[in-house]
Structure formats: structure tokens, C-alpha cells
Write a structure and sequence with these properties.
It is a single chain. The chain is of the alpha/beta class and 559 residues long. It has 23 helices and 14 strands. The longest helix is centred in the N-terminal third of the chain and has 18 residues, at 157-174.
């Protein structure tokens, strides 16, 4: 091993010991050893082992570990620390501005184990609740994480949307006489995008020359397809087509593999057939039009053969903000500010659902603070009439499946959103026990972010969706589609199953600031993929309809 490799191991060990809050003297001794070894003019591999102990800055313990590395190529104590440290915590060392001490706080006190979770906590304004993390530090951490994640190659739809639309405009300006149409995963409104793609009538040579001239690297090249990647680290793919075959190419590239194979089997369609519009393709085979965002599963083809597909929910159908956090817990804006923003956006109601008392990390509400908050809401409702603020809580589902607060307190809320926030590393049996107990609680109105997942960051805990949906239907509990772009939970792939059991879905932004209201849009994009209609979405209810829903929820309480 080289001196640099040995020094890196000692430096890494020192950092991990600090993250684990081990003996600070030992951690510093390994850090000093790394510094001394890195500055040596002689390679340790050329020094006789017994002479290593006489080198400046090398004591008995460090010397033995140097010999261990020279002999085995390993440092056992470092391997042990790596083994007992979550990989996501180790990855935090790559984030500029996050040293071992701050990472220790993030892991031990905030109970955050991945970079994605940390970014989510920044967006929820939670870091400022801990020593050493002011507003400026939180913003810096957020920006540095976003920069790091942008180097990894996979993106949330929301992360790429502005970039893609701007690039589309740039292409049209550069090649004004040719067509560039967005296709692929972005056109299908998938929540995670690995590659942005276009179909184009421009010739391959001109497109290739343009990108190479602008310092893009060619990642893949085939006869009628090419992929570029630039400094933004976004893969850009282009399908080349003649004008008379453009629509067939667009159709073929904006379907999932499953859908396209089923379509060919059902219709005998060939990608070489010529159509002027995608609508003509469907007319040719006497099948009602299927928009690109529904072209995922084979089953939708049979549905479209029988009847036109119903109109799906859109952002314009959202009538109220359900699931929002204010300065009473970990939100950025006051209730009045959030309500006024709703009024300005033409919304009819706001459901304030701050965190419950077990969410200490988010300044969860004590019983006394609940009373004070409700008094404020009553005053604001008089002031803002006819706009309505509903009293809600995002109640933690505790380890035994019970809800935060006793029945008397829960009864003070118009609706209760029940969510799991702690002890997320569960097997299916444990997760189902907690979820089913919470669903059966007569005070539960909405089941929040069903699996606790964070896209590109944290897998959700395992769950039996069919049993959950059956229980929600039995107990009249609404299933949240948490619209935060990093959650989008419940997964849209399971919404059709929920609808088949007459479950009601609610597209909720989980807003921790006024800006979070915009996330309803991203919730509707994935809801459209599942065929959700506005009638099947709680947050599309008018104020009068929502009042009826609240009364129904109150009647089911056994109190």
C-alpha cells in the first residue's frame, strides 16, 4: 500500500470514530497519523517493519496498524466501523460543509441515515431545531446535497422539469425548421427520470455536430438513435425519424415495454406505419385514445377498447390544501399566511395538520398548544369567512399502532391524518401491525404517506397493499397520495387496486411552506397515470362537500 492509501484509511477511521462519538483523543491521534504519513518523503512499504516505530509521529498503536495494512492490505478496525455505520451516513462525508461532528448530530439526534432524508429534512426546515444548524447552514447543506445528487444521474421529474422545457425551447431556436418532440419517460410522467428523450425530424449529423461543438460527450450511438451527456450530467437521447413516420416513432417511444408489446399483439401494429397524429393510430384499430401517461400496463388497452377512458384529475381540480404544516410545528409560514395564500390561489379551504407531540424533532404540539392553536384558527375563520380552515393533526402512528394523544384530544380535531415517522426499519409483519391498528382507530381519517418512502433515497417499509386497502375501505379511511416530489406515496402503481375497492384517494402536498402548495401538481401527474378522476380525489371536493366528509368522519368516532 502507498502512504496515501494508508493515510486515507487513518483519516477515514478518525472521521468514523467522531461520527460514532467515540474517544476523541483516539480519533485525533489517527487524524494526526494520517497527516504525518501523508507528509513523509519515504514510502512506508520500503521501511523495515521494526523501524516504522521510530519514525516521527508514529507510536506503538499506529505503528502496529501500519504494519497490518502493509501485510494484509486491510485495516480491521476501519472495516468494523464501516460495517456498523449506515452507508448513507458514510456518504454524507461527500457533502461539502458536513464534517463528522455535524453528521453525528444528524445521525444520532435527528435519526437521519441517508442524504435524501437529510435533504427532505432541510426542505421541512428541521435542521434549524438542532444546535449547530442555523438557517444559513441549513440552506448551504440543502444546496450542497442538491449539487451532489445532480452528479449521480437519476432525477426526480420535478428536478428536471424546468431544465427539460428550457432545453426544448433551445432546440427549437437552434433548429427552427425541424421538429423536436419530447418523448420517453418524461412524456409518460414517470416520477424518476434516467434519460430525457426526443423524437426529431432533424438529421443525425447536424444534431451530433451541435452537441459535440458544445462539449457534450456521446454516451451511446446507433443508426437512428444517439445519447449525449454534458456538464449538467443529464442524459439526452434523440430518435431520428422521417416526417411521415414521426407519429409512429413518437407513439413507440412513449409507451412502456409491457404496453407496447401488448399493443402489437392486440393490433398487429407496425412502427413503420404512417400516421399524421397519434389519434389516427388509435382510430385505425378502433380503440379509444390512450394518453401517453396511461401507456404503462397492458390492461388499459382492453379498457380503452370497451369505453373512452374517463378524464383524469388535474391541478385545476384541487379545491383545498389538505395536510400542511405551519410555524406551530416545523413549517415556515404562519397559519394566517398559509390561509391567505390559499385565498389568493382561489382555493376554498385549508387543512392545518401540524405534527403531534411524539414528533419532538418537529416541535410536535403539546395538548396545551393544541388548545391555543385552535383558538387562533377560530379567530382566523371569522376573519377570512367564507374561506375555511379545518383543525387537523398529523398524528404519529406509534410502535404499537396507537395514535398520539388520547381519544379526548383526538376528538377536538376535524380530521386526523395518521402517519408513521419513527422506527421505519420494519419487516412487513411489524409494519402491517402498526398500519392496520391505526386504520382501525375510529379517529383516523386519512392514512398519510403509506410506506414512508423517499424517492432515490429511502425505500418504503414493506406492506401488503391489498390488506391495507381492504381495511381502509372497511373503516372509511382515505389513502393519501403525498404529492411531495420526493415521496409520491402511495405509489401510483397501486392506486388502481385501491380504486377497485372503492377507496378514496387524497392528493395532499404535505406543505411545510406556501411554496409547497405547488406540489399538488406533481401529485396530479402521477395520479393521472393511475387513471384517478377528480371525483375519486378528496382534495378536489368543494368546501361544502368537504364539510360533509368531516361530519361523516366525526360520526364514526366511538367516543
Amino acid at each position: 500500500m502507498t502512504n496515501a492509501e494508508i493515510a486515507d484509511n487513518f483519516s477515514f477511521l478518525s472521521k468514523l470514530m467522531d461520527i460514532h462519538r467515540e474517544n476523541s483523543f483516539k480519533a485525533k491521534s489517527y487524524s494526526a497519523a494520517a497527516y504525518n504519513i501523508d507528509k513523509m518523503s519515504v514510502q512506508l512499504s520500503t521501511v523495515e517493519h521494526h523501524k516504522i516505530f521510530s519514525l516521527k509521529g508514529i507510536g506503538e498503536s499506529v505503528g502496529q496498524k501500519i504494519i497490518e495494512q502493509l501485510t494484509t492490505g486491510q485495516l480491521q478496525i476501519l472495516n468494523e466501523y464501516i460495517e456498523k455505520t449506515p452507508q448513507g451516513v458514510i456518504e454524507m462525508l461527500r457533502i461539502k460543509g458536513l464534517g463528522p461532528k455535524k453528521i453525528a448530530t444528524i445521525w444520532h439526534e435527528m435519526e437521519i441515515e441517508t442524504i435524501g432524508e437529510l435533504l427532505y429534512a432541510c426542505n421541512e426546515n428541521r435542521l434549524t431545531l438542532f444546535n449547530g444548524f442555523g438557517a444559513k447552514t441549513q440552506q448551504s447543506v440543502k444546496e450542497n446535497i442538491e449539487f451532489y445528487l445532480n452528479t449521480l444521474g437519476n432525477y426526480l421529474y420535478q428536478q428536471l422539469e424546468t431544465y427539460v422545457l428550457a432545453f426544448q425551447e433551445k432546440l427549437q431556436q437552434t433548429f427552427p425548421h425541424k421538429k423536436f418532440i419530447i418523448t420517453g419517460a418524461f412524456r409518460r410522467q414517470l416520477e424518476i427520470i434516467e434519460r430525457v428523450e426526443w423524437v426529431t425530424t432533424e438529421n443525425k449529423i447536424d444534431v451530433k455536430n451541435f452537441f459535440v461543438k458544445n462539449n457534450y460527450q456521446i454516451q451511446q450511438e446507433e443508426e437512428n438513435y444517439i445519447v449525449f451527456c454534458g456538464e449538467e450530467n443529464v442524459q439526452l437521447g434523440f430518435y431520428f425519424s422521417e416526417e411521415n413516420n414521426l407519429c409512429s416513432q413518437l407513439f413507440a417511444t412513449s409507451c412502456s415495454k409491457e404496453f407496447l408489446e401488448a399493443w402489437i399483439n392486440v393490433t398487429g401494429w407496425s412502427a413503420l406505419e404512417k400516421f399524421s397524429t397519434e389519434e389516427e393510430i388509435f382510430q385505425e384499430f378502433n380503440i379509444n385514445f390512450i394518453p401517453s401517461y396511461r401507456r404503462e400496463f397492458a390492461t388499459v388497452i382492453q379498457q380503452a377498447k370497451q369505453n373512452p377512458l374517463p378524464a383524469t384529475v388535474s391541478a385545476n381540480d384541487i379545491k383545498g390544501i389538505i395536510h400542511s404544516h405551519s410555524t406551530w410545528s416545523d413549517g415556515v409560514n404562519t397559519i394566517e399566511e398559509m390561509a391567505n395564500a390559499c385565498v389568493l390561489q382561489g382555493l376554498e379551504y385549508l387543512v392545518i395538520s401540524d405534527h403531534s407531540k411524539s414528533a419532538f424533532y418537529a416541535q410536535g404540539l403539546s395538548v396545551e398548544r393544541i388548545v391555543a392553536q385552535h383558538q387562533q384558527i377560530d379567530e382566523l375563520n371569522k376573519k377570512l369567512f367564507p374561506f375555511k380552515i379545518f383543525k387537523s393533526i398529523e398524528s404519529d402512528i406509534l410502535n404499537d399502532g396507537s395514535l398520539d394523544y388520547d381519544a379526548e384530544i383526538l376528538n377536538k380535531f376535524d380530521i386526523v391524518i395518521a402517519s408513521i415517522h419513527s422506527n421505519l426499519k420494519m419487516n412487513e409483519e411489524k409494519a402491517m401491525m402498526r398500519l392496520l391498528h391505526a386504520i382501525a382507530n375510529p379517529f383516523t381519517s386519512i392514512l398519510g404517506h403509506l410506506t414512508g418512502r423517499l424517492l432515490l433515497s429511502r425505500n418504503g417499509y414493506p406492506a401488503n397493499y391489498e390488506k391495507i386497502f381492504d381495511a381502509c375501505a372497511e373503516h372509511n379511511v382515505v389513502i393519501e397520495l403525498n404529492a411531495h416530489p420526493r415521496r409520491l406515496d402511495v405509489d401510483w402503481r397501486f392506486i388502481e387496486l385501491a380504486l377497485s375497492k372503492n377507496n378514496l384517494i387524497s392528493i395532499n402536498p404535505d406543505a411545510h411552506a406556501i411554496e409547497g402548495y405547488k406540489d399538488c401538481y406533481y401529485g396530479t401527474l402521477v395520479a393521472q397515470k393511475a387513471g384517478l378522476t377528480k371525483e375519486q380525489n378528496l382534495s378536489s371536493y368543494s368546501l361544502e362537500q368537504f364539510k360533509i366528509f368531516v361530519e361523516e368522519q366525526k360520526r364514526k368516532r366511538k367516543f
